[in-house]
Amino acid sequence: MIKHISFLLIFSILSCSLKGNIVILNGLTHHYKVENGQVYKGKISIENTSSQPQNVKLFLQDYVYHSDGSASYTIPDRVKNLKSNTGWIMLNTDLVSLKGKEKTEIFYEIKVPEQTPDGGSYWSVIIAEPVEDIKPSNDQQQGVNITSIVRYAIQIITDVNSEKAKPDLKFEGIKIEKEVGRKFLKVAMANTGNLYCKLTVTAEIYHKKNGQKIGSFSSQAMGLLPQTSKSFLIDLDKIPPAEYNAVLIATDEDDNAFALNVELEVKND
Predict the structure, then answer these.
(1) Which of 87, 170, 187, 211 has the maximal Cβ count within 10 Å?
(2) According to the model, what pLDDT value does residue 196 have?
(3) What is the spatial distance between Cα 174 and Cα 109, in angstroms, rounded to a whole number?
(4) The domain containing residue 250 runs over which residues?
(5) Is the residue at 127 inside a domain?
């Protein structure tokens, strides 16, 4: 009886709400091939999916991520981050008010400098974040109110003199793990080059004892910015437990390929 009362007390003082009923309609990655001194225009299409009015603020941040799942969003700093393009981007507004079920478009302009330190990809993100109207409250309810806000990060990637730049892919780590009840080959890939690319990792798997090919299995295609890394998941749930040899092949959209021979051991659950 005491445990039951304690549970109800904790539940009564903790309330959790999810704020943000907006969606981005035209993708979270906007990729441009640009030239020095030129101006480019783009837009973000946004919708309020709720029946209630919603304010959305927009602002620029620098962005980097790693294969361990971590990501960093920071205040723009062109001194520390030479590959940031935040200084090139101008939004037509930093706040929009949407009626229930309303759609709108936010426009931005990219002014590429006459000169850049080097060729390759420059990038940042535009954050779209729901905000509430500030209203006086006479609510005397005691306790802790936890509010989760759904924010969107729209990548703005600009490739300058891309013909003189290239991605350089490196295999950082390979292991078999269980995700959502299934076995996956987790391949950590790093881009040590200076050009953004979109790549797929394929595993050609052979039985170690007789050399018989089991099959080819591929990850989903994902983009990879310079000096970042991501983990690519390859579903191995239908592969029976045994020891295997495998050729891992990372291929980008320009058919540049990077390969690695590995040994795999698929174990029983």
Answers:
(1) 187
(2) 97
(3) 41
(4) 169-266
(5) yes
